[in-house]
Design brief:
Blueprint (H helix, E strand, L loop, with lengths): L4 E3 L2 E4 L4 E3 L7 E3 L14 E5 L3 H8 L4 E4 L5 E3 L2 E7 L7 E7 L2 E5 L21 E6 L11 H17 L3 E5 L5 H9 L6 E3 L1 H13 L7 E2 L13 E4 L15 E6 L8 H4 L4 E3 L7 H11 L3 E7 L1 H10 L3 E4 L19
Parallel strand pairs: 3-4, 4-5, 5-6, 10-11, 11-18, 12-15, 12-16, 13-14, 13-15, 16-17, 18-19
Antiparallel strand pairs: 1-2, 2-3, 7-8, 8-9, 9-10
Helix pairs in contact: 2-3
Protein name: Putative mRNA 3-end processing factor
InterPro entries: MBL (IPR050698), RibonucZ/Hydroxyglut_hydro (IPR036866), Xnuc_lig_assoc (IPR026360)
Organism: Sediminibacterium goheungense
Length: about 325
């Protein structure tokens, strides 16, 4: 592939001399979204979407960054760069790169179902498409968001009837904000872990329309949490921080909960298969909609997806990257901003 190459620093456009989501420090980094496996500290200059910018600053510090809107082109050495909605989390973008008639789109992470918060995924016609494959197995077929939110709301209501606190385990950037749409029809007594509060406050101050929540602090009496909802990052489940909420029930919100028994292995009471990634059919439909003649498959079930695409007559190849699977919900540091 001539326009984008795969290097030990990340995806590189030599014509424009920039990297997309580099995993090592570079001079010019174009960022798809602010999750830590795609946005890393140390680069001299960052380009990102306007809604990604405040969270990038929160997580990486006082970086040198340029924030742009979706569809607004930036030119570097004659290479046209533009950002387009990925639907993964707030501000998440696909990167469209065009040079001398060749178009490559780097998806980052994405989902095709509109969630009312992250921007609707936009299929972009291109010659080459670089796609994630986090949930690239036919078993992963998500329920529609309204139905999933109804299930979460009912679980909370049942806990309220039993004077039990409902603790939802969710990644602090993306899932935590999305879940508020399921919680607010049931209660306005919503508490969040400090890591989630930091992200929530930055997004609210930026103008993202999120409901008000309350940060969990040591000064809050235990009785205040009765019948409430608490959103906590994965790492908090193994900490003493949880003790203040007794009696409580926990539910993991992750696409991995699609597999029966996963919530029991994670020592929780319930699991909701709510994912910020495309499911199997979402991946296939997104790839086909690009019309790409060449597809590179990264992080996830690369071999399954690339083999399927090749069998369908779409040339595909696997690529190893340093991107992780944050939706695994097992390793996020509860103290991370």
């Amino acid at each position: 592939m001539s326009l984008i190459s795969f290097t030990d620093h990340g995806l590189y456009c030599s014509a424009g001399d920039f990297y997309i989501d580099p995993w090592r420090p570079v001079n010019h980094a174009v960022i798809t979204h602010a999750h830590s496996d795609h946005a890393r500290w140390g680069s001299a200059h960052y380009l990102c979407h306007a809604d990604t910018f405040p969270v990038l600053r929160l997580r990486l510090g006082n970086i040198n960054a340029q924030a742009i809107a979706w569809g607004d082109p930036v030119y570097k050495n004659g290479v046209k760069i533009s950002l387009h909605p990925a639907g993964h989390i707030i501000g998440s973008s696909q990167i469209r790169v065009e040079y001398k008639g060749e178009i490559c789109v780097i998806s980052g992470d994405y989902k095709t179902e509109a969630d009312g918060l992250s921007g609707n995924f936009e299929a972009i016609r291109c010659h080459t498409f670089i796609t994630e494959s986090t949930f690239a197995l036919p078993i992963y077929q998500w329920e529609a968001q309204p139905k999933m939110f109804d299930s979460i709301g009912q679980w909370i209501s049942n806990n309220q009837q039993n004077n039990t606190v409902s603790i939802l385990i969710a990644y602090s950037l993306g899932k935590a904000q999305r879940l508020l749409q399921a919680i607010t029809p049931v209660t306005d007594r919503i508490f969040v872990h400090g890591a989630i509060w930091n992200t929530h406050k930055v997004l609210q101050d930026h103008g993202i329309p999120l409901p008000n929540v309350q940060r969990v602090t040591p000064e809050i009496p235990k009785s205040s949490f009765n019948r409430s909802v608490v959103i906590a990052p994965p790492g908090a489940t193994e900490s003493n921080w949880m003790k203040k909420f007794h009696p409580y029930k926990t539910a993991v919100c992750s696409g991995w909960m699609q597999v029966r028994g996963n919530f029991r292995r994670n020592n929780t009471d319930a699991g909701f298969a709510l994912s910020d990634h495309a499911d199997w059919q979402g991946l296939i439909s997104a790839i086909e909609a690009t019309g790409a003649s060449k597809v590179f498959v990264t992080h996830g079930f690369q071999s399954v997806l690339s083999r399927y695409l090749n069998e369908k007559g779409i040339e595909a190849a696997e690529v190893k990257t340093a991107y992780g699977e944050e939706d695994l919900l097992l390793t996020e540091n509860p103290d991370e901003a």
